[in-house]
Inverse folding.
């Protein structure tokens, strides 16, 4: 079997391998190797399918279950070994097409492994509940005889069937790959929709927070304005009340000052008369009665110099003024 020239994985990066392009000759060699590997894998798979079909059509499943299980396990190990070699080959080739080929085959391999596991599990269940089991040598003889009878008729069409099986298998691999891609695309779309919904909800939440913040800021500004107005009103009220009290106080002080001045003036008159009066001239004593004029200028009282006049006082007047 011809092999395509391989490169060391340590010297070629993954990105470099995937950007590689084959020449015409290299592509032909690659196709030949892939077809040969597919043919070998298809041959093993047909044997596995034959074992399963033989088991399903048998009327004595309990007897042959152990032997069918052993053959399936053996064929499954061989298939996995060659499948791993097939997977490594496209990876080493490093082209975009070979990478798609590898991914498609990995899907096929995964499906086949699940099918084999399910079949082996079913066989184990049958084996665990059956006592009538066919010996392995009897099964070997029966299968050998059956195989020898059919080998002659199949040999002539082996090549054509192998080629057709390879084409069908590759097409099936591509179909499985597209199916898987479609499933992942649908999941990706769902996730994108969920993400878009979350982003939309987050934007709405932020808009609501912004609106509430603006409302609070506006209320705060209004409160500050109301506070300033209340302070000014309080100051104005205090000034008005203080002015009223101050005016009342000035009026009271003016009244008290006028009364006090009058009282003091009268005291001064009597003091003056007492100083100018003697006991030796009681009848001819002249009493000085001062008069005063009061001028009001700019809300204040200014007493002028008192004027005196000489007059003879009668005894009654002197007695009234308590004069000697």
């Amino acid at each position: 079997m011809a092999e395509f020239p391989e490169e060391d994985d340590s010297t070629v990066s993954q990105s470099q391998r995937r950007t590689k392009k084959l020449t015409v000759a290299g592509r032909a060699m690659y196709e030949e190797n892939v077809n040969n590997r597919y043919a070998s894998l298809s041959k093993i798979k047909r044997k596995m399918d034959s074992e399963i079909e033989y088991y399903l059509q048998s009327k004595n499943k309990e007897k042959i279950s152990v032997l069918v299980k052993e053959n399936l396990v053996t064929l499954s190990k061989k298939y996995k070994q060659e499948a791993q070699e097939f997977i490594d080959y496209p990876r080493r080739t490093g082209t975009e097409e070979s990478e798609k080929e590898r991914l498609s085959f990995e899907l096929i391999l995964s499906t086949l492994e699940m099918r084999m596991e399910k079949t082996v599990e079913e066989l184990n269940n049958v084996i665990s509940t059956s006592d009538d089991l066919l010996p392995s040598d009897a099964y070997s003889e029966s299968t050998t005889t059956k195989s020898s009878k059919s080998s002659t008729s199949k040999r002539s069409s082996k090549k054509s069937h192998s080629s057709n099986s390879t084409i069908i298998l590759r097409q099936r691999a591509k179909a499985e790959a597209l199916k898987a891609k479609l499933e992942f695309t649908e999941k990706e779309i769902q996730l994108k929709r969920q993400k878009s919904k979350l982003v939309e909800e987050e934007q709405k939440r932020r808009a609501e927070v912004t609106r509430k913040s603006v409302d609070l800021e506006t209320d705060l500004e209004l409160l500050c304005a109301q506070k300033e107005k209340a302070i000014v009103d309080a100051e104005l009220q205090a000034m008005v009340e203080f002015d009223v009290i101050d005016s009342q106080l000035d009026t009271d002080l003016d009244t008290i000052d006028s009364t006090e001045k009058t009282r003091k003036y009268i005291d001064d008159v009597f003091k003056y008369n007492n100083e100018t009066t003697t006991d030796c001239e009681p009848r001819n004593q002249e009493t000085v009665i001062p008069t005063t004029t009061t001028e009001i200028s700019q809300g204040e009282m200014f007493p002028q110099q008192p004027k005196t006049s000489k007059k003879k006082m009668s005894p009654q007047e002197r007695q009234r003024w308590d004069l000697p």
